[in-house]
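Sequence only, no structure available. Ideas?
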Amino acid sequence: MNFTTQSEMESARRESKPQVVLSGGNIAHYHHAALALQNAGQLKKYFCVFTGEGDLGILRLFLSSRMKRRLSAKALPDLDRRWMDPIAWPYLTTRFLLQSGWFSQQQAAARFNEWYDNVTRRRLPPCDIFHFVNGVGLATIRRAHDLGYLTICDIRAEHVDTQEQLLQEEHYQLGLPYQSMRALYRERLLAEYEMADALIFHSQYVADTFRQQGIASEKIHIVPYGVDLSRFGGQLANDAAVAAHEQNLFRIIFVGNVIPLKGLHYLIEAFQTLALSDSELLVVGVIDSEYKGYLDRMFSQARIRFLGRIPQVDLWRYYGQSSVFVLPSLSDSFGHVVAEAMVAGLPVIVSENTGAKEMVREGIDGFIVPIRNVTALQEKLQWLYDHPQERKMMGQQAAQQAKQYTWEKYGQQLLLVYEHILSQKRAK
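Reply:
I predicted one. Tokens follow.
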């Protein structure tokens, strides 16, 4: 066969390999999966919400500088736009309705899932594999099955029923009203679990919650996420750490959504009970108003700084100015913030229900504590406070350990999982 153009030759080369359609929703991490597929010649189409600020056209003129920085951080320059299909309007519309008070958070999430999924269903091209993020693929997976494509559901959270039970228990203990965040799309999540030929998880912890709910082990595949080494490591973070040391402050940092599921109230109780001199707690993340009201009623705000949302491109500054990172979450599927803090040179304290605990070596990079255990948090914080030299060494070891979790390695492992799943299908 003769090829007359370079593009025809490239097309023939690509079609000789299994072709993948990837649907990542609003999760920028999947840019790295798309890049791995592109480099392997296997990316047929990448559905996403944003590839960067340029997706918004004239709307970008109305963005704040902070939002522009957030969108710019989502861009991955090496991705070829030929394979990318950004679908921004479902996200922009539901965010507008949420901020206007016409939708609740739950309604906005449910409607985004539905609208985005309906677009990808209509635009789904011929492929060998349809790989999508749980929650945004039910209509499209049905079409993919009708067309005979292999389907893979990417799981970003614990089994929905496991998480719901933990949330109900915690709200009851705190005396807070509970409204399920996933009730409107629980059946969608369960149907996707069931229909997918294979499930990809990013930690053993999350996979175990599915096994406990009866999901067959042969459907389970684990591919740990990576971390951006250029953004959270390097000399800039080291310079910030020196500045923090010169301030002679023992600074604890928490990063994540400020909701009961993250267990911040246990950390605050431990911090205030210890009453360490020259210490401070930084809380970075979007704050739920009812939960913030509970924290205000129960705890003094002395030496606690609530910073709200910080663009990810700026987070390294706060990691670098801190002494220890703590994530006492009751349930966290992976916890990118743990890996980021480790790369930035911080020792970490994480709960046993955090997927990222699998990269933490107990007593070397940090500590793993039981959920809801204030005493354990106090003991580990006190030890780190009393042993500054060991704390520094632990942070250095954490940085080296986390550097093994690269996005390049994630992409390589993902491609191996595709091969394994395809071979399983051929065997059947």
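The chain has 18 helices and 13 strands.
Hope that gets you unstuck.
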